[in-house]
Design a protein that fits this description.
By secondary structure, the chain is α+β, with helices and mostly antiparallel strands. It contains six helices and 13 strands. The protein has an eight-stranded antiparallel beta barrel. Strand 11 and strand 12 form a beta hairpin.
Amino acid sequence: MRISSGDTIFMPCGTQRRLRITGPGLDSLARRYTWLQTGPGQWIKAWCNGHLTAVPGSADSLLVAASYVHMDAAVHCPPVPLDTLAGRYVARAAMPGGEHLEQLDLLRGGDAVITTTMPGVDAEVDGTWGLNSDGQLIFEEAGKKFAFRYTLNDGGLVRHLPNGRTVEYVRTGPPERLSGAFGRTARWLAAVSNAHGRGMQAGELRPTMRLDSLFPDPATRDALRKSARDTLAMDEQHLNAAWHDAATVRDVVQLMRGRTRFR
């Protein structure tokens, strides 16, 4: 919820839909909001009882708040992905010895991959993306270790760095789910599955899918492990240590990215 001069907005979590608030519960919400607010236009997560009602002569709706329940300024709704923004966004910069290229694939449904290429470096980072309450695009690393903030700009993106500088990204086309390490992993998993009559399409795989659901019987799991030694270029010692903890497609993608360490 956000209250400013002459404007009271409630945005249900999981949406980008902004609703005006009215009703007998608004006074209680406003008092609590004023007590917690630390900056102009601040979004504060709020819970209330109420219902939606149509605005006569308009396609908009109102939230009729009946009573205040709870408010917490320390928590936030998770960012919401919008399929219309899915795409591949690229930033380029000259540097000594070559070019620094950063590629951001925003995939439908909220998955994301950042690929960084420069002389001596070729790295990928998995994560999720979505818009926050202020309409900023947020990339959050899969392990929630860090997040990046972007604003929308003429069909592209602008990333805001901690030092105040900005980096501009140009949209170059649709995202490619089967590029990079994820694509190599997905095609391999599908090939092993199909060789044992399971029927799997690489393009249907998602990072959070569990291996025990994709390979539910002992025969296919054993076949996958045997194949992993050659595909991931691991000796038996490293395979025993790493494969035991691989529970999801994303875990296997991480092993695929690190395979050159064991050659």
